[in-house]
Amino acid sequence: QVQLVESGGGLVQPGGSLRLSCVVSGDTLDYYAMGWFRQAPGKERSFIGGLDWSGRSAYYPDSVKGRFIISRDNAKKEVYLKIDSLKPEDTAVYYCNAHSNWPSDTDYWGKGALVTVSS
């Protein structure tokens, strides 16, 4: 059974930086594209970035380009989200996601990590 566990959330002041981690168990990370999503209060869950299985192809929506950086370490079975220049509107629950298309399209989710950006 694939399990994802996020860590590193908490309270941070505007302008600060934070790194979230996601540890994968139950399977090798080589089989999955990895991504991060977030859900702010009263909002829909939205995609904020991802990496393909090799970690060499990254993709981000325009809303977070330049501030959010995703990386992965397949040997350690970990994926990371580094956020710079945090803003109050970044306050949300952040979710780690693993996607496989073999043998079928399947998504696995962590339980989420709360990031609160406030003075």
Brief characterization of the structure:
Strands 2, 4, 5, 6, 9, 10 and 11 form a seven-stranded mixed beta sheet that branches. This protein has a four-stranded antiparallel beta sheet with strand order 1-3-8-7, with no helix packed on it.
Write up what this structure looks like.
- There is one protein chain.
- The strands form two sheets. Strands 2, 4, 5, 6, 9, 10 and 11 form a seven-stranded mixed sheet that branches. A four-stranded antiparallel sheet has the order 1-3-8-7, with no helix packed on it.
- 0% of the residues lie in helices and 51% in strands.
- It contains no helices and eleven strands.
- A hairpin with a 6-residue loop joins β4 and β5.
Radius of gyration: 14 Å
Span between termini:
40 Å
Please report which band the strand proportion falls in: under 5%, 5-15%, 15-25%, 25-35%, 35-45% or over 45%.
over 45%
User: Which class best fits the helix and strand makeup?
Assistant: mainly beta
Question: What is the topology?
Answer:
Layout: E1 3-7, E2 10-12, E3 18-25, E4 33-39, E5 46-51, E6 58-59, E7 68-73, E8 78-83, E9 92-100, E10 106-109, E11 113-117
